[in-house]
Write a structure and sequence with these properties.
Number of strands: 4
Order of helices and strands: HHEEHHEEHHHHHHHH
Number of helices: 12
Low-confidence stretches: 136-143, 165-170
Oligomer: single chain
CATH class of the largest domain: Mainly Alpha
CATH topology of the largest domain: Arc Repressor Mutant, subunit A
Length: about 300
C-alpha cells in the first residue's frame, strides 16, 4: 500500500498509563524512542497497523536493531515490554499495532485522496482544452482524417507527459516491494532474492540501496535473477556506489579516454651488436694450457 507522510501523536501521549509505566523503567528513553519509531514505520507501511519490510519479509530483531541504531538487547526488551502491555502483537506477517486507529491520520489520508482527485481532474481539463479546435493552428488545409490524427498525436503526448510525472512521483519514498513490482511487474518476490535481501539488511545495507539495485535490474531488462542481483550489489558496494546515478557517472568516467598531454614515446631501437676483435691462440699458447692442465690433474 502507499506510504503516508504523517501520523497522529497527541499532546497527552505521556499521560497514558502504559507510557507512564514505560517511563519508570531503567531504559525508558530508549523504549519510548523505539515505540515512536514503530508508529512511524506503521505509517510508512500503511497496512492497517502492520510493520514489515515487505509483505513477505517481516522485520527481525537484528534488522530493527540496525534500523533504529539500538543495541539488540534493548530491542528485545522493548518488544517484550510492548507485547506484555498489549501495545503490539507479532505474527508471521510482522509486528502489528492493535490500536493503530488511534494513530492513523484518517484526515491526512482523505486529504491525499482529494489532492489526487484534483490532479486527475486538472489533467482531464488540460487534455480537453488542448484538443479544442480553437487551440489547433495549422498553415495547411486540415481534413477530417488528419485532424483526427492530430488529436491522437496530442492525446499520446499528453498521456506520455502524465506518465513521466507519475513515474517520477512513484520513485519518491519507494519501498523494496514497490521497486520489485516496478521492475518485474509482480509482487511475489522469489525465495532466492528474498533471502539475499534479508542478508543485505542484516549486513547493515540500507533499504534505499536495495531499491536502487532492483530498479537498475528492471531498467536493464533483467528478470528477477538472484545471481545477477548479487553480482551487481557486491560490485557497487565494493566501489562505494549507492545510487543508479552514481553508477552511470562512474561508467561515463571510465568510458572517456584521458586526453594525451605528452607526445607518444617511440620504442627505442635495439642497438646492433658489434663483435670485438679477438686474437687467435698460437701453438705455444695451446702447449702452455695443456701443460697447466696436466699439473692440476697430477699427471
Amino acid at each position: 500500500m502507499a506510504e503516508i507522510k504523517w501520523i497522529k501523536i497527541t499532546t497527552d501521549m505521556f499521560e497514558d498509563e502504559k507510557i507512564d509505566f514505560i517511563s519508570s523503567l531503567p531504559e525508558a528513553d530508549a523504549l519510548i524512542v523505539i515505540w515512536i519509531r514503530l508508529l512511524t514505520l506503521a505509517g510508512k507501511c500503511n497496512a492497517g497497523g502492520y510493520v514489515f519490510l515487505t509483505e513477505k519479509i517481516p522485520y527481525t530483531e537484528e534488522m530493527l536493531a540496525h534500523k533504529f541504531k539500538k543495541p539488540l538487547n534493548i530491542i528485545k526488551l522493548a518488544l517484550e515490554t510492548f507485547q506484555r502491555l498489549d501495545m503490539i502483537e507479532i505474527d508471521e506477517r510482522g509486528i502489528f499495532l492493535p490500536n493503530w486507529d488511534k494513530h492513523q491520520n484518517i484526515e491526512g489520508m482523505e486529504r491525499v485522496r482529494m489532492l489526487t482527485n484534483e490532479r486527475v481532474k486538472k489533467h482531464r481539463q488540460k487534455k480537453k482544452a488542448l484538443l479544442e479546435p480553437s487551440n489547433v493552428t495549422c498553415n495547411v488545409t486540415v481534413t477530417q482524417s488528419n485532424a483526427t490524427d492530430i488529436d491522437k498525436d496530442k492525446d499520446i503526448e499528453i498521456d506520455k507527459e502524465i506518465k513521466e510525472e507519475e513515474k517520477e512521483e512513484d520513485m519518491t519514498g519507494m519501498t523494496i516491494l514497490d521497486a520489485y513490482y516496478h521492475a518485474f511487474k509482480h509482487w511475489n518476490m522469489t525465495g532466492a532474492i528474498q533471502g539475499y535481501v534479508v542478508e543485505l539488511l542484516n549486513r547493515g545495507v540500507s533499504e534505499s540501496f536495495i531499491v536502487e539495485i532492483i530498479l537498475e535490474m528492471g531498467e536493464r531488462g533483467i528478470g528477477p535473477n538472484k545471481k545477477y542481483m548479487e553480482k551487481m550489489a557486491e560490485d557497487w558496494l565494493s566501489k562505494g556506489i549507492m545510487t543508479r546515478q552514481q553508477a552511470q557517472q562512474r561508467n561515463q568516467a571510465i568510458n572517456v579516454r584521458p586526453v594525451r598531454t605528452q607526445p607518444r614515446q617511440t620504442k627505442p631501437e635495439m642497438p646492433l651488436y658489434t663483435p670485438t676483435e679477438t686474437q687467435t691462440a698460437t701453438d705455444a699458447d695451446i702447449e702452455r694450457i695443456l701443460a697447466k692442465g696436466k699439473r692440476v690433474s697430477g699427471q
